Write a sequence for this structure.
């Protein structure tokens, strides 16, 4: 199979497909593999286009789940105990029936690409996409050298071409992080429990925490994470990581085996779901949880919902969207509190973990809690700042007068 435009193209090479996927990351793979496994698209043709060959371990997905997921066999490590640390508070939680799981990007990409390469009706193309356009019938995708590919049915897009439009009461924070996979010469880590969040570190740059995922007695992924409006200089992330490893892990000797860096939007701005035959998916389709940045599991749920809608209603636009309704309101209020700096992230998350079980917090962050639980969670937080934020969200001041806005654009792909 030809995977590169400038390679020899077989005579049956086509510029027209039933479904075109722009981007070959988590969202495309999660949806396309579900479509193929359903067995209902055997007569359809698919094109997947990405600028990147997906040969690097560019990210690690961590998420909680209380059953086996579609990509279970790719889970690199999972934990059923986790630590939360905040100023003056530390607790280890048993999270059964949940498990906190880790999937490495490279394992995911390799598995998915190998699977797709075996499908006779799937064409992969590794080229940069310049634009996508909705047409009267279908949609088209233009790559940088102006070659054009047509989607007769739908074009699923996970490339961040447009940023969501700012509006009154809407905020745009960034979640940015740098992680090191470190190794020690002697046994040091306890691989039975991970640290979900450690907020004891300096909060000078905004809401900041570190998470530590021990893989073995001698290796762990340690990631320095911030929620705020602007990115740091590279050395500032590294200083944060070094200080944490020295002061909190109390580790002096280690080597860095791998690194990762990422930026994810944390926003209550409304993402376009696409128009006509274009359907936005993944982060571009608004699947990132505004208040936490968790995305992987929302992509899985959304992929299930899109497939269900295609099979049962004949279109890929499910009625239940991930971050809508009262959960979007809660997310908006939390973002508003952070943007107005009425309370810091360390204080908010420490209060939540002090007074609630991790399982209740997980259900809430999954948008799966029921109202009584939400009232219990809300009552564990200080009333004043949240009440004022709720008022600002319900009655936003005119455009331009609210405090918000990322000072730098969100980078494509993260
Ligand atoms: C380093 C990192 C760690 C993360 N960790 C977690 C986590 O632990 N848990 C969690 O829930 N979420 C996490 N996320 C957030 C989210 O799950 C991921 O960003 C996820 O990959 C989003 O899937 P996606 O398909 O929307 O985007 P992506 O997976 O980024 O896929 C988009 C694809 O589009 C391609 N592309 C971009 N521009 C072009 C172009 N012009 N032409 C062609 N191709 C293009 C990119 O190469 C990429 O393959 C993390 C994100 C990052 C960046």
């Amino acid at each position: 199979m030809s995977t590169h435009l400038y390679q020899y193209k077989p005579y049956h090479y086509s510029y027209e497909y039933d479904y075109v996927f722009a981007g070959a990351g988590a969202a495309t793979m999660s949806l396309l593999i579900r479509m193929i496994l359903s067995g209902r698209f055997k007569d359809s043709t698919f094109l997947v286009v990405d600028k990147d060959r997906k040969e690097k371990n560019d990210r690690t997905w961590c998420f909680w789940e209380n059953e086996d997921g579609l990509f279970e066999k790719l889970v690199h490590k999972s934990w059923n105990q986790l630590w939360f640390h905040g100023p003056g508070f530390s607790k280890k939680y048993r999270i059964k029936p949940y498990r906190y799981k880790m999937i490495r990007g490279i394992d995911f990409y390799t598995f998915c690409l190998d699977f797709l390469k075996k499908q006779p009706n799937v064409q992969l193309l590794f080229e940069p996409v310049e634009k996508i356009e909705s047409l009267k019938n279908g949609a088209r995708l233009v790559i940088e050298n102006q070659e054009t590919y047509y989607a007769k049915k739908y074009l699923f897009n996970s490339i961040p071409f447009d940023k969501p439009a700012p509006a009154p009461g809407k905020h745009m924070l960034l979640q940015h992080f740098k992680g090191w996979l470190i190794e020690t010469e002697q046994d040091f880590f306890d691989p039975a429990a991970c640290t979900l969040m450690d907020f004891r570190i300096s909060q000078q740059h905004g809401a900041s925490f570190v998470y530590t995922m021990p893989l073995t007695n001698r290796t762990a992924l340690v990631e320095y994470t911030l929620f705020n409006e602007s990115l740091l200089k590279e050395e500032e992330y590294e200083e944060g990581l070094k200080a944490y490893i020295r002061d909190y892990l109390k580790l002096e000797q280690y080597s860095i085996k791998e690194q990762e860096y990422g930026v994810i939007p944390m926003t209550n701005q409304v993402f376009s779901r696409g128009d006509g035959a274009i359907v936005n998916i993944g982060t571009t389709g608004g699947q990132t949880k505004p208040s936490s940045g968790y995305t992987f599991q929302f992509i899985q749920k959304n992929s299930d919902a899109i497939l269900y809608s295609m099979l049962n209603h004949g279109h890929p636009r499910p009625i239940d969207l991930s971050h809508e309704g009262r959960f979007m309101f809660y997310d908006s209020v939390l973002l508003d509190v952070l943007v107005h700096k009425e309370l810091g992230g360390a204080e908010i998350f420490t209060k939540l973990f002090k007074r609630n079980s991790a399982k209740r917090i997980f259900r809430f962050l999954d948008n799966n809690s029921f109202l009584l639980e939400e009232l219990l969670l809300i009552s564990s937080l200080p009333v004043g700042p949240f009440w004022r934020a709720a008022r600002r969200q319900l009655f936003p001041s005119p455009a331009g007068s609210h405090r918000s806005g990322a000072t730098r654009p969100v980078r494509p792909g993260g």
